[in-house]
Amino acid sequence: MTSIQILLLIAAYFGVLILISYFTGKDDSNDVFFKGKKQSPWYVVAFGMIGASLSGVTFISVPGLIAGQQFAYMQGVFGFFVGYLIVLLVLLPLYYRLNVTSIYQYLEQRFGTVSYKTGAFFFLLSRVTGAAFRLFLVALAMQYIVFEKLGVPFWITVVISIALIWLYTNRGGIKTIVWTDTLQTLAMLTSVIVAIFLIVNKLDWSITEVFSQASFKSKSQLFFFDDVNSSTYFWKYFIGGIFITIAMTGLDQDMMQKNLTCKNPEDAKKNMFSMSVLLVFVNVIFLSLGALLFIYSEQFGISIPEVEGKVRTDLLFPEIAMNQGLGLGLQITFLIGLIAAAYSSADSALTSLTTSFSIDFLNIEKLPLAQQKPLRKKVHIGVSLLLIIVVVIFNELEGSVVNNLFKFATFTYGPLLGLFTFGILTKRSIKDNYAWIVGLASILITYFITELPANFPDSFIGKYAFHWEILPLNGLVTCLGLYLISAKAKPNTDL
Fold it and tell me: Cβ(147)–Cβ(7) under 8 Å?
């Protein structure tokens, strides 16, 4: 495809998104923007949340993980499933019972204002960086495919991407996103399935033969129990996956805001369970694609792409899809899938950040009605500008984006995990004014512990390599810190 054809395809796709936005955003009220008037069909939310959960990270970076760890990522996915069940059984009923717009309002009712602001701050920090990581990955792929050939600088690619997201989320908010995410999930899955079919056909295999091929088996080891010091060790991935889901879904305004648009708690539970089951199978498909991509590259002598002298396994999928003669059909579906992957998570992140900052820090619900909508729109623009800045900064990072994302998240979501865990599992009150100190200290202490193997190999940890289990460790440190500033129950601890 030529650069002009690619740009026309992008324009057409966004035309569809803006059309959806037009019909879903006719009611421009804050109730629609923040809650979708709680009228979303649960099955639509479930399907759309798959795309939001996967994002560009799964679409591009997860297949690239095959090079270093085969199917080890699935160990974390099994943990995700358990985590979703905990969210379904514990957190969803709590949020619906309290009838909150921002889930961090629970912390205000349970502990006080400082705890509330602390939780909301760590969400903002986590989601800004998480959304930026995802946007960076897809913007990088778009830069590699089309914009670099046109001489467009990377930062302009980022500005264009985020401006388009702002355009179709500005009015309808979460109501628009519930429906656009459905379209984008479909686009992503179609792209991956088409890619698998064409690669298998090029390798002269049948679909049923794939899993029995020796080259596929050599790249598809699933369980790793042999080395506790390895980052791929089963229990690290599995336990870390449980807590990552609890934190990055159950304690994340972005993901839970969609659940809270369902008509009632029962529909929200149906949505969460359906999504969790489908997500296991979808990740198997993505990892299978990753194995096939590396097999294909080895068989046909395709080099791993480099950008500015850095090897990017994340870009192997775009390289094969766009430049290795697999046909126009794959090029089109890949590009649509790529765009969908970028915006299925970025659009909801933009909306949830706007929601959280407006409610948690500006107390928008307490302002006169005439002031609420103009303020929300200003916040929406401000968050968009912030994302642009952070994405450009992340362009300087090295390594797999999925690893960078989860590593950062294990630190920033830790205080949130600790605050909610302490609030739900205990009846103790805390000295609210010290909550932010505990949150910050827990990150620093956890970071110090995780750096011991590299800097002090003779310490009690030895050569242990930390992975996703950093998150529950961080949450535990936070809980211990909260206990130190706690006292016996106050009347509001029945929440």
Answer: no
